[in-house]
Specification:
Length: about 110
């Protein structure tokens, strides 16, 4: 490799013969990294809270619809002639509850 110019010969020498020192990271870069990590962490916390909110509303909605179904069945036993009315009322309420659950998921 003697045909290489002297400026390139140094680049091919083993790493152990050259001193390699890590350069210190500038403070502005460290701050920017810490701020970015904190921002992502905060966003994760917000997303987790949204998931919990949707879960809570969905659970409450399902409990409410189950209660309406039981009440509808009870009234059907007492007064079978009102079946169409009970079903309409229960279905309307169930749709309203479902739309509240869906709206919660959108925000």
């Amino acid at each position: 490799m003697t045909s290489l110019p002297s400026r390139l010969t140094g680049a091919l020498s083993p790493l152990s013969s050259r001193e390699l020192r890590p350069r210190p990271v500038p403070a502005r870069i460290e701050r920017a990294v810490h701020e970015s990590v904190a921002l992502e962490h905060g966003n994760g916390i917000i997303q987790a809270a949204k998931v919990r909110a949707v879960e809570l509303v969905a659970n409450e909605g399902m409990q409410a619809v189950a209660g309406l179904s039981q009440l509808e069945a009870l009234h059907l036993q007492r007064c079978p002639l009102g079946e169409a009315r009970y079903r309409t009322i229960a279905d309307t309420a169930a749709v309203a509850i479902a739309s509240i659950v869906a709206e919660t998921g959108r925000h």
